[in-house]
Design goal:
With about 475 residues, the chain is of the alpha/beta class. It folds into four domains: about 1-95 and about 190-215, 3-Layer(aba) Sandwich (D-Maltodextrin-Binding Protein, domain 2), CATH 3.40.190; about 100-185, Periplasmic binding protein-like II (D-Maltodextrin-Binding Protein, domain 2), CATH 3.40.190.10; about 240-260 and about 270-335 and about 440-465, Periplasmic binding protein-like II (D-Maltodextrin-Binding Protein, domain 2, 3-Layer(aba) Sandwich), CATH 3.40.190; about 340-435, Periplasmic binding protein-like II (D-Maltodextrin-Binding Protein, domain 2, 3-Layer(aba) Sandwich). About 30% of the residues lie in helices and about 30% in strands. A six-stranded mixed sheet has the order 2-3-1-4-11-5. The model is unreliable at about 225-235 (pLDDT under 50). Keywords: Amino-acid biosynthesis, ATP-binding, Cytoplasm, Glycosyltransferase, Histidine biosynthesis, Nucleotide-binding, Transferase. It is found in: Cytoplasm. Pathway: Amino-acid biosynthesis; L-histidine biosynthesis; L-histidine from 5-phospho-alpha-D-ribose 1-diphosphate: step 1/9. GO terms for molecular function: ATP binding; ATP phosphoribosyltransferase activity.
Length: about 475
């Protein structure tokens, strides 16, 4: 059986078109597919699965798949840390063009690599590509640096919560739109056809590979845009330009924004340009002495713990995941916001003849149990607490349902209604805990004479809104 890993998201449209020309018969490969695993209608020996793009190099490296398509950025992210990974780059597919840039704020003193290298104080580098970021820092021989892995929204971090970000963009002009300046192009990337090296040696992949090679279109590089640095409308100053007693509040991006806006409105707290149609990460907040930045909820606990924010609105699931990794973290929950309710559950495939965790342990026997999840620390704690014996945590970055049953034995996943789980022919065998959105804080900020009054004001206003 030829196993193929295909990407969601940015590469899906072009990859789908290429594979249709190549007559792979993967009719199930569509945008917003409800089923992630399917077989070829023209080749009974080919099956495919849809993954988050970042997961694909890992899945090929460990031998779960023979062929895959992903951007060279995610391939380099893996090989930067594991250079001997069992992956072969077969062909540049000619689409998915972009670059990874090392960027700083336009007003940053670090306006060049030379300025960065000369710095003797700590340089904070934030990125979704932490392995590439570390390699970048090592190559520059930075004297003192810290890497902050992110789930996204890296552009929000300079200059106050990171000096440098490494992030993907089509051009430097795209950086300028976010008031960022490129100090280096770290990597040019496009989509690649990749293979597991052992599969190349042991399986006949020639038909599939040659059909793709014959149908690759010539890619035309996008025309470079003029770079114009213009302030984002409604964007507030950075935290660095504010008094030391300013309370720094992180609000979530993405689908949680309408819920947060509704609560703020009910509390009588004005906020401008949130949610933002222009991608503004610094909306104006209606309480003096409180400044806001919009980032990913997954990143909030570690950012609050490191003192980059005083308050944040995130999910109790992400707070718990953080506290399992860092039990002495200074982050604490201040208020349950009573929205965004989900359950964290243990999930297996319907074809697995078990109904609870003990039966799954017996079913797996002495072999390694593979647990796939975005919640790696919760999963590890759950496995240890339940004495699962020989197990391995498989980190994922979304589309976790795709991993069962071939690539994992169990998932730790969140669900609201269970509908998505059922649609993928999966079942729940245990509930870990329930989670809602909550306000978290750095304990030092809560007890700070300079900030406690403003923090208490926000919490009191939110409490009244919840009680109304």
């Amino acid at each position: 059986m030829l196993r193929v890993a295909l990407p969601k998201g940015r590469l899906l449209g072009d990859t789908k078109a290429l594979l249709e020309k190549s007559q792979w018969g993967l009719d199930g490969y569509v945008d917003k597919a409800k089923i992630y695993c399917f077989k070829s209608v023209s080749n009974p020996e080919m099956s495919a699965k849809i993954f988050h793009e970042k997961d694909i190099p890992i899945q090929l490296a460990i031998g779960n798949y023979d062929l895959g398509v992903c951007g060279a950025d995610w391939l380099t992210e893996l090989t930067s840390r594991y250079p001997s990974s069992s992956i072969v780059k077969l062909k540049n597919l000619g689409y998915g063009h972009g670059a990874l840039y090392a960027a700083t704020a336009v007003n940053s003193p670090y306006d060049s690599l030379a300025a960065l290298s000369a710095c003797s104080t700590r340089i904070r580098i934030a990125s979704e590509y932490p392995n590439i970021a570390e390699a970048f820092a090592m190559q520059l021989r930075l004297k003192n640096f810290s890497i902050f892995p992110l789930w996204g929204s890296a552009e929000a971090y300079p200059p106050d919560t990171a000096e440098v970000v490494i992030l993907p963009r089509k051009s430097e002009a795209d950086l300028a739109k976010k008031n960022l300046r490129s100090i280096a192009k770290v990597l040019d990337f496009k989509a690649y056809l990749i293979a597991n090296s052992q599969s190349l040696e042991e399986k006949d992949l020639s038909g599939a590979i040659s059909s793709v090679m014959a149908n690759i279109s010539r890619y035309v590089e996008p025309k470079a845009e003029d770079i114009k640095i213009e302030p984002v409308n409604g964007c507030q100053p950075s935290f660095l330009d504010m008094p030391d007693d300013t309370v720094r509040l992180a609000l979530p991006d993405g689908h949680q924004q309408p819920h947060v806006r509704k609560i703020l409105d009910a509390a009588g707290i004005a906020i401008e340009d949130y949610p933002s149609a222009t991608g503004n990460h610094r909306p104006a907040f209606g309480i003096n002495g409180i400044a806001v930045k919009v980032i990913r909820p997954q990143d909030m606990p570690i950012q609050v713990a490191n003192g980059n924010f005083d308050l944040a609105i995130t999910g109790r699931d992400w707070l718990t995941d953080h506290l399992y990794q860092f039990p002495t973290s200074p982050v604490k929950e201040l208020l349950d916001l009573k929205y965004g309710w989900v359950k964290l559950v243990a999930v297996v495939h319907n074809d697995v003849p078990v109904s609870n965790l003990d039966e799954l342990k017996d079913y797996c026997g002495s072999r390694e149990m593979r647990i796939a999840s975005e919640y790696t620390n919760i999963s590890d704690f759950y496995a240890r607490s339940n004495h699962l014996g020989h197990y391995r945590i498989v980190p994922t970055w979304g589309a976790t349902e795709a991993f069962l049953p071939e690539d994992a034995d169990m998932l730790v996943e969140n669900t609201e209604t269970g509908g998505t789980i059922a649609r993928h022919n999966l079942k729940i065998i245990d509930t870990l805990f329930e989670s809602t959105a909550c306000v978290i804080a750095n304990y030092q900020s809560v007890v700070s004479a300079a900030k406690s009054e403003r923090i208490n004001t926000v919490i009191s206003m939110l409490k009244k809104a919840l009680e109304a």
